[in-house]
Amino acid sequence: MKFDVGILGSEPLPVIVEQVRLAESLGYDTVWITDTHLVCRELWVTLTACAVATSRIRLGPGITVPHTRHISVTASAAATLDDLAEGRVVVGVGTGGSAAQTMGLTIKATARIATLEHMATSIRRLVRGESIRFESGTEGRLAWLDRDRPRTIPIYAAGSGPKMLAAAGRVGDGAIMYASTDPGILRAAVGCVAGGAEEAGRRLEDLDIGIWAPMSVGPDRTLARDHARGRVASALRHPLPVPFSEEDRPVVERLRQGYDAFQHATAASRHRELVPDRLVDLMALAGTPDEVREQVRRVMTVPEIGRIIILPQVPDAGFIGRDSILRTFAEQVMARVC
What is the 3-state secondary structure (H, E, C) of the chain? Predict the structure, then answer.
């Protein structure tokens, strides 16, 4: 199992860079920086600063979305970053959530399967030095790219509902599943990815499958779980690969109606108060080190999952610092389950 970190980049850039340096020193495999420009610092500037400050850890957007920048801009940015951090760049693509909502769009309006598939395949073609056809009907390529050295940048497609997960299986080098931490639901999600891969004549074992997991860990169980509630609320804006229970449907609907996308990157968000304990259990890795260790072991019972991307909420006064969470998870969870 590989362990990654997802970072909501709302803190000052030097702070984020130090957190990425810390993640590298602690043995995390990849850092994924979120792409939500009205809530967080600009994605590619942040990634560049992190690349300069590190030497081993992989870096990339987690996830980048199509409605804030053209896919050709994303491809050029990724290939340029690969000049600086060759072999360490990954690209996570999806249809987005908070970036859309802060721009007045709805998740439902932007969650198009064809959009995900087009984004993944087009970025892959461009960074390889190939051409794509633009909306105007003309063809274009990255003319600056050395055709004798095409880039091989892994594209991870993200999904949560069954159709989007199947699309990830069709077009991704990897799949990022935002679909609970419950083994039964994760197995259903893997089944969706496998179905998509089979449709495309691909093998599931050739895909790098990970989960995007709200996470918080510390000695104070209540505080750690409260720290994760806002991230759980964010996850519940999206469908699962299985239907929500009758008990949970009205709760999830209230969460979706009460979600404030401008509080997307804050542990003290008001909408966290709408998240009951059972949904923290369903969606997050949260609690004391002993509890989180057992939660991770439960995820590891789904053998197709090869990486866990932990996503700590951005701390507010009275909540747990991200540095502390990264250290505790590395020393008391990662080191004891692998």
Answer: CEEEEEECCCCCHHHHHHHHHHHHHHCCCEEEECCCCCCCCCHHHHHHHHHHHCCCCEEEECCECCCCCCHHHHHHHHHHHHHHCCCCECEEECCCCHHHHHCCCCHHHHCCHHHHHHHHHHHHHHHCCCCEECCCCCEECCCCCCCCCCCCCCEEEEECCHHHHHHHHHHCCEEEECCCCCHHHHHHHHHHHHHHHHHCCCCHHHCEEEEEEEEEECCCHHHHHHHHHHHHHHHCCCCCCCCCCCCCHHHHHHHHHHCCHHHCCCCCCHHHHHCCHHHHHHHCEEECHHHHHHHHHHHCCCCCCCEEEEECCCCCCCCCCHHHHHHHHHHHHHHHHC
Work out the mean pLDDT of the chain and round it to a whole number: 95
Cα–Cα distance, 200 to 223 (Å, whole number): 45
* pLDDT for the residue 105: 67
Which CATH number do you get for residue 204? Answer: 3.20.20.30
pLDDT at 151: 87
Q: pTM for the complete prediction?
A: 0.96
Alpha-carbon 157 to chain mean position? 9
- The alpha-carbon radius of gyration of the chain (Å, integer) is 19
Total domains in the chain come to 1
Q: Residue 318's domain spans which residues?
A: 2-337
Quick: pLDDT tens for 285-310: 999 999 999 999 999 999 999 999 99
d(CA 15, CA 88): 21
User: Has residue 194 got a pLDDT over 90?
Assistant: yes
Q: How far is CA 34 from CA 60, 97, 144, 182, in A?
A: 9, 11, 27, 24
